[in-house]
Specification:
CATH architecture of the largest domain: Orthogonal Bundle
Order of helices and strands: HHHHHHEEHHHHHHHH
Strand order of the largest sheet: 1-2
Largest sheet: 2 strands, antiparallel
Oligomer: single chain
CATH superfamily of the largest domain: MetI-like
Strand content: under 5%
Number of helices: 14
CATH class of the largest domain: Mainly Alpha
């Protein structure tokens, strides 16, 4: 009887595993098909795109790199006065500091709130966490007015006009501000789960908070920091609303997403330019994610098993 039950349980386990594998592969294929179609379309000419579906090009390949050279450098055939390469560089200049600043600040704040107890520390932590309920869209215009005109009570200035709207700093600061509540919350929970005995042993050996943070917390928190960095990088790289608002129409600091949005508006039939530009935009987040994938998985699973 026990052998029969064991055989039945083993069969159910194998069957369930196979079903799960089939479902996962099916979802993966369905999710990947649009990306493959975009990739194939980016190598086709306008005539080939209108002449046959993209999947037939896999059987009779007829590809060209003119789309990428035209989108990056600009050409007359697609009426691009300039390519997206300057905007691509702008996106990198925007994304890297807007990722590094909140991660660095959030890591230090999370350590302070988790391991440096002071009066009101819990209130400060919950207040920071509560800031997540403020909708991003509601804060954009007031924050832009604060940057450009400052804040006054009557004729008395209480906050000076920073004058950073239309500059890269005017985009870095909002991204940093909007990212900090969630970043501090996530890293606080990660850092607070580190062994207390390890911290106490370091303090007994004479280490101050700065040394504990630099030599113990940072190495152990690498998975959590990497996972947060991936989320923040993807959020900033794919953002269009914040960049458009705080760039104030300045082309010199506009990201690649704004250029692609203008291509959609002006050249709605330019499938080749849109597909090539879209895939260029997708490529960078993919590289970042796969480069930090092992840290990302470790960061998500951290604390799940004692």
């Amino acid at each position: 009887m026990s052998a029969k039950l064991a055989s039945h349980s083993s069969g159910r386990k194998i069957f369930s595993t196979r079903i799960a594998a089939v479902v996962v592969w099916a979802i993966t294929i369905i999710w990947t098909i649009p990306t493959v179609g975009l990739f194939v379309t980016s190598f086709k000419s306008d005539a080939d795109i209108l002449g046959e579906p993209w999947w037939k090009s896999l059987l009779h390949p007829k590809f060209t790199l003119d789309n990428y050279s035209g989108v990056l450098l600009g050409n007359d055939t697609q009426s691009l006065s300039s390519g997206v390469l300057p905007y691509f560089i702008n996106s990198i200049v925007i994304t890297l500091p807007a990722t590094i600043f909140p991660v660095v600040i959030a890591t230090m704040a999370a350590y302070a709130l988790a391991w440096i107890k002071f009066r009101g520390s819990d209130f400060v932590f919950f207040s920071i966490f509560a800031l997540q309920v403020v909708p991003l869209q509601m804060a954009l215009v007031p924050l832009l007015l604060l940057f450009t005109g400052g804040a006054h009570i009557g004729s008395i200035p209480i906050f000076p006009a920073l004058g950073i709207a239309g500059d890269f700093a005017g985009i870095w600061v909002p991204h940093t501000m909007f990212a900090l509540p969630l970043a501090i919350y996530l890293l606080h929970n990660f850092i607070a789960s580190l062994p207390r005995d390890l911290m106490e042993a370091a303090h007994v050996d004479g280490a101050n908070h700065f040394k504990v943070f630099r030599m113990i917390v940072l190495p152990l928190a690498v998975p959590g920091i990497a996972a947060l960095s991936i989320f923040q990088f993807l959020w900033v790289w794919n953002d269009l609303l914040v960049a458009l608002t705080f760039a104030s129409g300045t082309e010199e600091v506009a990201p690649i997403n704004s250029k692609l949005a203008s291509l959609v508006g002006q050249y709605g039939s330019g499938y080749t330019a849109l597909s090539a530009g879209a895939f260029i935009t997708i490529a960078v987040p993919l590289i970042v994610f796969f480069s930090l994938q092992r840290y990302f998985v470790r960061g998500l699973l951290a604390g799940s098993v004692k």
